[in-house]
Design a protein that fits this description.
- The protein has 479 residues and is mainly α.
- It contains 20 helices and no strands.
- 71% of the residues lie in helices and 0% in strands.
- Helix 7 crosses helix 16.
């Protein structure tokens, strides 16, 4: 059996298997640049700013703006790497496929394993946040809320979080109808939530008091770093843009552009929202508030109407994150299934809707369970460290492929190479350091489990092992 360390798929193999720049693996190219940008915004802007802002403020105080910038810098360097690889290898597997082409099958499987954690916890946590804002909206409109037993899991004093399950089911229903319909819905929701956040900033800055920013960095650099590690969760999702590689028109051009536009736009938006919220009420009033943006608007305007509008924007925003991130997860699983590393049911595409229907419903069912019953606070840091590890691998993959495949057509090249990817790896490691040793141990255990799963299942069923009998391309030797 070929050692897994030497099982490397060349970019040419990945492109050929996916359909290259034609229709990919039964999928259809229906998304243009505007829709792709909206898809990226849909995947990023959601719980991280509508719900998670208060957690970042609790760590860093008014210096949370610096925390957002620090998290964004990490993302920018990695975004350069994603842009180069997404333009050069426009396939659905995203980071997983990039690792397969550069570091080999075992590393690729572990990247996919981390992505399962990233997307799974992200969708479940986002669905729980959606439930919170749905109750806020109902309270604003009708004065009534869902009973705690049906709107929270056992860890939060309820029985089952029904709204969280509903939003996941709605997203799955839209996804199986077709990517064109999903992209249009995501675009509409992205435009709406950006507009609402701009209105929030206008309200917040109308009550801005400079004194609320003092003391600016009470907890020092440690607080800023801890805030950046929490804030980084707000940026999780931009890598989902590359999972649309087989359903985007002109992917070599549009994927790099969309990634860079999304990171720049979201960073400006996050910093403006954080600054206006703290300037209006102060860091102590914002910290620890699950619906902080609604609170700010209610207190500034003296009415619950404005908070209701923010709650409506949050309901829309968070629903779009569920939709976009679930999309990304299904496409990564489809790529892993295509390679034989997970069961083949995940690669089947419906000829009618051109979507992986069974894959989507399985993902929805799995994600709905923790959303309905589990308390996810304990694994948010684990998700963050897993995502940072994946981003470090992507930066490394750029350097490896530049050496191994210098002739590969690249529509975008990382600027200041190799300094940019090296800095990207450095910032990732710095934020990993900020998650704490208990999270490191959890992550180490998570990787051990992933390695065992690969050894028991993926390594033996890999298409690079069964390929000779199926007429597939030979394995590329490691260099």
């Amino acid at each position: 059996m070929t050692p897994s360390a030497s099982r490397i798929k060349t970019p040419q193999q990945l492109l050929a298997e996916s359909g290259a720049d034609l229709e990919g693996h039964g999928l259809k190219r229906t998304m243009g640049l505007f829709q792709l940008v909206c898809f990226g915004v849909g995947a990023i802007v959601g719980t991280g700013i509508f719900v998670g802002l208060s957690d970042s403020v609790a760590e860093a105080g008014p210096a949370v703006v610096i925390s957002f910038v620090l998290a964004a810098i990490t993302c920018v360097f990695t975004a350069f790497s994603f842009a180069e690889l997404g333009g050069a290898i426009p396939v659905s597997g995203s980071s997983y496929s990039f690792a397969y082409a550069s570091l080999g099958e075992r590393a690729a499987f572990l990247v996919g394993w981390c992505l399962l954690l990233e997307y799974g916890v992200s969708v479940s946590a986002v669905a729980v946040g959606w439930s919170q804002y749905l109750n806020e909206l109902l309270e604003s409109l009708t004065g009534w809320q869902l009973p705690a037993a049906l709107s929270a899991g056992p860890g939060e004093g309820g029985v089952v979080n029904v709204p969280a399950v509903v939003v996941i089911a709605l997203a799955a229903t839209l996804l199986v109808r077709g990517v064109r319909e999903s992209a249009r819905a995501t675009a509409a929701m992205a435009i709406l939530k950006i507009g609402i956040l701009i209105v929030f900033c206008a309200v917040g800055f109308s009550a801005f008091q400079a004194g609320h920013l003092s003391p600016f960095a009470e907890h020092g650099m440690g607080g800023i770093t801890a805030g950046a590690s929490v804030a980084f969760f707000s940026y999780i999702g931009f890598d989902a843009i590359t999972t649309a590689g087989e359903e985007v028109k002109n992917p070599r051009r549009n994927i790099p552009i969309a990634i860079l536009i999304c990171i720049g736009l979201v960073t400006l938006l996050y910093c403006a929202v954080a600054l206006s919220a703290i300037g209006a009420l102060g860091a102590d009033a914002v910290a620890g508030q699950p619906a902080a943006l609604s609170l700010v608007v209610d207190q500034v305007t003296g009415s619950s109407v404005g908070g209701g509008i923010i709650a409506f924007g949050a309901v829309v925003a968070i629903a779009s994150v569920v939709l976009a991130v679930m999309y990304g997860q299904t496409r990564i699983l489809m790529s892993m299934s295509r390679d034989g590393l997970v069961p083949r049911v995940f690669e089947r595409v419906s000829p009618k809707s051109a979507t992986p229907v069974a894959n989507t419903w399985i993902v929805a069912a799995v994600f709905a369970v923790p959303a309905a019953f589990a308390s996810l606070d304990v694994v948010v840091n684990l998700t963050t460290i897993g995502t940072l590890a994946v981003m470090a691998v992507v930066n490394l993959a750029v350097m490896v492929l530049r050496r191994r495949n210098p002739e590969l057509p690249r529509s975008f090249r990382v600027p200041f190479f190799p300094l940019s990817p090296i800095l990207g790896i450095g910032f990732c490691l710095y934020l990993i350091w900020g998650t704490g040793w208990t999270t490191w141990l959890q992550f180490a255990g998570f990787l051990v489990v992933g390695t065992l799963v690969y050894a028991v299942y993926g390594r033996r069923r890999s298409r690079l092992v069964t390929a000779p009998s199926e007429g597939a391309a030979p394995v590329s030797p490691a260099e």
